[in-house]
Amino acid sequence: MSASDLPDELWARVLELGAASSALGFRDLCCLAITSRRLHRLSLHSSLWSVLLSRDFPSQSQPSSSSSSSQQQQQVHPKSQYKTKFERHKVRMAEARRRVVFEAEARVLACRRRLAELEESMRAEGDRMKAAAQELDNLERVRRASVALNVWQPQVVRGRQKQLVQQCTVHVDSRLSDLNMELKV
User: Fold this and answer.
1) pTM of the predicted model, to two decimals?
2) Which helix (H) or strand (E) holds 130?
3) 47: closest CA among 86, 72, 5, 14?
4) What residues have CB less than 8 Å from 95, skipping those under 6 apart?
5) How many CB atoms lie within 10 A of CB 61?
């Protein structure tokens, strides 16, 4: 006995069992429908598509309370209803994917902004570090000049050293230690 010898009722029952057990999906059913005229005819059974419709879209396939809309639903083949609901579902899924992409792009943009802020902060901190290093260098020269004042030097050199020390308005040693500490940090 070959597969072609089986009656249509058995084939229809096999297809219904496959759909009910989730072993046969709408894609499988569509693929079967294009294999032969017999399977095409069997795949159009409304009971088969009703099973797929209630399985794949359970919340959307609830019977409505109005009699006119239930009559319209009965006139529309379940395969057409399935196709309509599938297309709507596909559009909703595409919109959901777009929302996820937009949200990810928004997070990336926020991270880029934060990175730009951090880079600006680092540049400003670098500028402060350069200024502190320059001030430290200047204070070192002032300290050396102050020390040189206490040691005998020719009068010309002594005048320049005295001028450097007098220009400095802060206590050199404390400011030096502060700047060294700041640079270490």
Assistant:
1) 0.52
2) helix 78-149
3) 14
4) none
5) 17
